[in-house]
Amino acid sequence: MKVAGRILIADDEPEMAQLLGQLMHREGLTPLLAKDGKEALQMVRAGDPDVLLADLKMPGMDGMELMRKVRALDPELPVILITGYAEVGGAVEAIRAGAHDYLPKPFEHQQVIRVVLRALNERRLRVELRRLADHVNQVLSPREKFGPSEAAGKLICAIERVARSNFSVVIAGETGAGKEVVAQAIHQASSRSKGPFIPVDCGAIPEALFEGELFGHERGAFSGADSQKIGKIEAAHGGTLFLDEISNMPLASQAKLLRAIQERTLYHLGGTKPIHVDVRMLTATGLDLEGLCEAGLFRRDLYFRLNEFTISVPPLRERREDIPYLAKRFMDIADIDLSKSIKGFSALAMEAMLAYDWPGNVRQLRSVVRRAVLMAEDTISKEHLGLRQNLFRSSAHGEPVACASTPGGARSGLPLREIVRHTTIHVERQAIADALRRTGGNKAKAARLLQVDYKTLHTKVKGYGIEIEGEEPSE
């Protein structure tokens, strides 16, 4: 059965480009021809090819340089390089640099088709796997999204409590802490879950275009308005509108938003017809909105209208018990996305993640783990993580020692609160390890010895990467 696909062919030899184009067309594929690397790059930017077939040797921008630039634009676009016999060594090097495959000249026509179809099918498989991973992420319960810590538990309770209402909610927290994930969880647990969830990044829209994006516009409302466009509020009718970084909203737009919320009615720019909307408002901010109200940078009446309920998302450094769970989940997703088969994290890698302060929070953890999956072959090591902050050093026995507990910790400039926290982590890990040694690795006995419940001990053992040989509890 023939499949459809757009194959971009970059070759400075017109005869070769025409031949390859005819082969693609005969197979039911759509050939796109570029006479050199520069033109091919422009076509990648302008269109959406499914596979790039490029000659390694081209004047100006050769195949290797083209591949590097294309991967910066679309890391998942398969690149197949065509090489002369003497250039095979260079092609192998290109595969190490990220090329999908190579075709040495002279080649058989069926060989070209096989390589292109394989690349095309693998790209489609990755797209489908990502779609399935996104779907799984949408149906995860809040507990599965946030982790097992007590702080995450309190966050989930707040989400479940307010989701059943129609309250407007302000979600406060640092960048990358998961404010949009909280908003999605509220929407999914609400009676509006079958309606749309429309996110808007207020910091990414230029002020001159903000009202058109939010309220929509009529044809001819302004220069360039060639057709009618519905706005984000109207698109969220029957569902939830999530305004991220609400503090960036222009003051003039704040007044119009307040009126639309109170009256449940809006007008397109350039329009006179009232449009009824039924929308739940969720907003997020990393700033102190009350302080902005005091400074006259945010409307107090809008703040009161939006802030019927507040949820504070704790930063990742304040819920470290969630790090092992989240890291494993991100690893599994990246495993599928990158077609890898990583077994897990080494003890030192997990220890480094638990010690790190994660200034970029969960978003940073996801990026670090994804990059580590790409770099690792079997198990993710501490080196694969690339974390620069080193809050633990190894003792002569290979056990972690908190730097903050030494005079050097004070000299490092850490505040007393951080010194105490990191020292506490070290002491807790040591106490659990000692209890497990005394009980021969029996977690149930160790939990009784330390007077904590088994589940808490099990979570901490896993989180700290403690490995003690011995029996497992039979209870």
In short:
With 475 residues, the protein is of the alpha/beta class. 49% of the residues lie in helices and 14% in strands.
Shape descriptor reads flat
Task: Give a quick account of the main beta sheet: strands, pairing sense, barrel closure.
Answer: 5 strands, parallel
| Portion in beta strands | 5-15%
**C-alpha Rg (nearest Å):** 28 Å
Write down how many β-strands occur, each being a DSSP E stretch of 2 or more residues.
Answer: 18
Q: Report the span from N to C terminus.
A: 57 Å
Helical fraction equals 40-55%
Number of helices: 21
Structure characterization notes:
Helix 4 (88-96) links the parallel strand 4 (79-83) and strand 5. This protein has helices at 14-26, 37-46, 63-73, 88-96, 109-139, 142-146, 150-163, 179-188, 207-215, 232-235, 251-263, 289-294, 300-306, 323-337, 347-355, 361-375, 382-385, 407-411, 416-438, 443-450, 454-464; strands spanning 6-10, 30-34, 51-55, 79-83, 101-104, 169-172, 197-201, 216-217, 229-230, 240-244, 265-266, 275-276, 280-285, 309-312, 344-345, 379-380, 392-394, 400-402. Mean pLDDT is 83; it is low at 390-413 and 471-475. It has a five-stranded parallel beta sheet, with helices on both faces. A five-stranded parallel beta sheet has the order 7-10-13-6-14. It has 475 residues and is an alpha/beta fold.
